[in-house]
Design a protein that fits this description.
The chain has 15 helices and 12 strands. With 466 residues, it is α+β, with helices and mostly antiparallel strands. The chain has 2 domains: 121 residues, no CATH class; 309 residues, Alpha-Beta Complex (Transposase Inhibitor Protein From Tn5, Chain A, domain 1), CATH 3.90.350. Strands 1, 2, 3, 4, 5, 6, 9, 10, 11 and 12 form a 10-stranded mixed β-sheet that branches. The protein has a two-stranded antiparallel sheet with strand order 7-8. α1 runs antiparallel to α15 and α4 crosses α15. It is elongated and about 115 Å long. This is Transposase IS4 family protein.
Length: 466
């Protein structure tokens, strides 16, 4: 009899050696990290297989429903779609730690390729629209790109960059006070659960979420030359907290308004009046940014209780798309050109949002559960981390779309090979069963043959006697 299990084990071992995505899973020790974060087996299907299948979904371009209906018996022996949703809604899994541990492991590989000043932390948020009527914790949030409020969440993301790669480290979902449906319809849970704490942070304001994420990053030993964010987060209170309490320098864009003020030479100026009262008297220099020339001037001032360096940037050619901006840095020793160059790294988070939403299913799941939304958002960012890691170790700094396509074809090839492996096993099983059936019929045929031969011999013998 053929040893089907031995053949299947050999085929699976060959797949893990041959395909790059499996090598990445092994290099990042995803199974160990998953176990530490509570993704362990209680009963039924092994949850790590379900987790890896969920990571593969986006590379196949399939939904959970389609995967369960057509692909679930290819790469893994999984159950129905309830297996996937049970994992995504488990309240004991520490999805934040899962993502952070993977990020820190990847960043550890990248650190040797960059200096301390090149490493920055980037903060930004994006709106995740939701069309469902009874999605937990969903609210009306303002979408600046559309200029109106939409139903959904606001995802505040913290990422790490060293100019060459961007790695998301942490995120938090935030909602407004304008909830879409009544709180009483939501799931009640034990307050000791990790999921309950994620629900509680959803009602906090964005500056509070930012401080909590940066504190966690600091506790994990994540060093960076500065924290970057846009003008929405640039307030005296938040800048002071990050610089004095947490211990990171800040480089940010300053909002030009009549209400936001700085103190310069003992006088209070609104950021809007700085262009009229202060900038004309400052010495200007020309800095080239890409293909554009920018007139730059700088001075030191107090932003709240923090001494900062203000950098005024004016495009040499006036246009609607190129407006004057003010940059702020808590490190006053940096040159204006260095501050501008460093702040340019903030654009990496915009690339993350664009690619994650368009290709990595970021915010595209249709589950009503808040825990499931946390799970699928985490997995989307983990996919981006895997792509960033593969991009860096391969020395391929092209657009991640090429890596995405490569992984998609690789997973499709895995799917075909897995189907072939299962077909061969089924064929071997059929042959094994057929051997017994054929042996039974052969015994019967042999018996009949002996009976016929014996009858013929008897008949001939009788005739000979007569």
């Amino acid at each position: 009899m053929f040893e089907n299990k031995s053949i299947q084990t050999e085929v699976q071992a060959a797949l893990w050696k041959e395909f790059e995505i499996f090598r990445v899973i092994r290099a990042l020790q995803l199974r160990t990290i998953a176990y530490r974060c509570g993704i362990s087996k209680n009963q039924g299907v092994e949850p790590f297989s379900v987790l890896i299948a969920l990571v593969f979904l986006t590379f196949l371009g399939k939904s959970v429903h389609h995967f369960v209906s057509h692909c679930r018996n290819s790469l893994f022996d999984l159950g129905g779609k309830d297996v996937f949703y049970r994992l995504s809604t488990r309240t004991s899994i520490n999805w934040r730690r899962f993502m952070m541990d993977i990020s820190l492991r990847v960043i550890k590989h990248f650190k040797s390729f960059s200096s301390w000043q090149q490493r920055v932390l980037v903060i930004d948020d994006t709106v995740i629209p939701k069309a469902g009527k009874k999605i937990e914790e969903v609210s009306w949030v303002f979408d600046h790109s559309k200029g109106k409020s939409v139903k959904g969440f606001s995802a505040v993301v913290l990422g790490w960059s060293d100019r060459s790669s961007f790695v998301p480290v942490d995120f938090a979902l935030q909602r407004s006070s304008r909830k879409v449906f009544n709180q009483s319809t939501e799931t009640e849970m034990d307050k000791r659960m990790l999921a309950w704490h994620r629900r509680q942070e959803a009602v906090k304001d964005k500056p509070t979420l930012v401080k909590e994420m940066l504190k966690r990053a600091k506790q994990k030993g994540l060093d960076a030359g500065a924290v970057l964010f846009d003008s929405w987060y640039c307030t005296p209170k938040l800048v002071s907290s990050i610089f004095h309490e947490i211990g990171y320098d800040v480089i940010a864009m300053l909002k030009t308004t009549p209400t936001l003020t700085v103190v310069l030479n003992g006088k209070v100026y609104s950021t809007k009046r700085l262009w009229e009262c202060v900038v004309p008297a400052l010495k200007k220099e020309t800095v080239t940014i890409g293909k554009d020339r920018v007139f730059v001037s700088s001075t030191n001032a107090f932003f709240g209780e923090t001494l900062v360096k203000l950098v005024f940037c004016q495009p040499s050619e006036k246009s609607k798309s190129k407006k004057p901006i003010i940059l702020l840095s808590t490190d006053t020793s940096l040159t204006s050109a260095k501050i501008i160059e460093t702040y340019g790294q903030r654009w990496a988070v915009e690339v993350l949002f664009k690619e994650a939403k368009s290709k990595l299913f970021f915010g595209k799941n249709q589950s009503r559960s808040f825990e499931a939304n946390i799970c699928f958002l985490t997995l989307s960012l983990v996919r981006f981390i895997i792509l960033s890691y593969m991009e860096r170790i391969n020395g391929d700094f092209r657009h991640k779309g090429s890596l995405y396509e490569g992984l998609r074809y690789e997973v499709e090839e895995l799917n075909i090979l897995a189907f072939m492996e299962k077909f061969i096993n089924q064929l071997l099983s059929i042959i094994d069963g057929a051997k017994e059936t054929f042996a039974f019929f052969m015994d019967k045929l042999t018996g009949i043959q002996e009976m016929v031969r014996h009858s013929i011999q008897n008949l001939l013998f009788q005739r000979c006697e007569t």
